[in-house]
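[step 3/7] fold_predict: job queued, chain A
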Amino acid sequence: MSRGWTTQLLTGLAEHLAAGGAGVWHDPDGVMEPYAAGDTAIVLGAMPPEPERVVLISPYPVSSDTGQDNVIMGVQVRVRAGSDPRDAIDLEDAVYDLLHGKTHLTLGGVDVVQILRQSSTSLGQARDQSARWERSSNYYLWAMRPWKE
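[step 4/7] structure written:
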C-alpha cells in the first residue's frame, strides 16, 4: 500500500530522530513492536502506556499556497520521561538538537527546506502512580508537496 505524503514525512522524521539517538523507532509499517523497558520509544498517533520514555509525533497543517507545492506542516513533538522533570527537559533538548534550524533534509522522500521550533511548554506531571513528566514542542517544517491540478 502506498502511503500518503504526510505519513511519509512523519516516518522520515521518526527515522531521523532514531538515527540521531533520540530514541528507538519500531513502527515503519504501522505495526508497533514491543519496546524494551529502557528504550525511548518514538511513535506516531497516541501515547502508549509503556515504555516510560516516549517521543510522540503528531502532525497538523499550518499553511499551503493554493496552486503551489510549498507547505508549512506543523508537528507537535510530545515527550514523556521519568518522575524527575529534568528527564523530560533533557529528552526535549535531544529532539531540539536534531531538528531546530536544520535545512535541506529529505525525510521519508519528502524534501524539507527548513525546520524551526515555534514553541515549547511543560504539560506537567501525571496524576497517577508513575508521576512521569511530559513536555510539548511545536515545530514548523517548510516542505515541498507534489502539486496536482
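[step 5/7] annotate
The domain at 5-144 is CATH 3.30.2000.10 (STM4215-like).
The chain has a mean pLDDT of 91.
exit 0
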